[in-house]
Design a protein that fits this description.
Elements: H1 3-6, H2 18-30, H3 35-50, H4 53-72
């Protein structure tokens, strides 16, 4: 089964001190941001600034895929 079959974005694991992750999450919440989206946007900004043409194209394709996934996401049940 591929990611496209399940229409889910794969989970990435990385090490981060819990206090830093919590502080980042609290800051995002206070600013009305979704932590995952804000982190993605920060990564995209770095790739735009420092990435090769190939890396920029790959990230642009990933951004397009993520936007398409989010547009199909169902709103939570009320």
């Amino acid at each position: 089964m591929t990611t496209e079959d399940t229409d889910e974005t794969p989970i990435q694991r990385f090490r981060m001190p819990l206090a830093a992750w919590t502080a980042f999450g609290q800051m995002c919440k206070r600013r009305g941001q979704v932590r995952a989206r804000h982190l993605f946007d920060l990564m995209w900004a770095d790739v735009r600034r420092h990435g090769s043409d190939e890396e920029k194209a790959a990230f642009a394709a990933a951004d397009k895929e993520l936007r398409q996934r989010r547009s199909r996401k169902r709103p939570p049940a009320a």
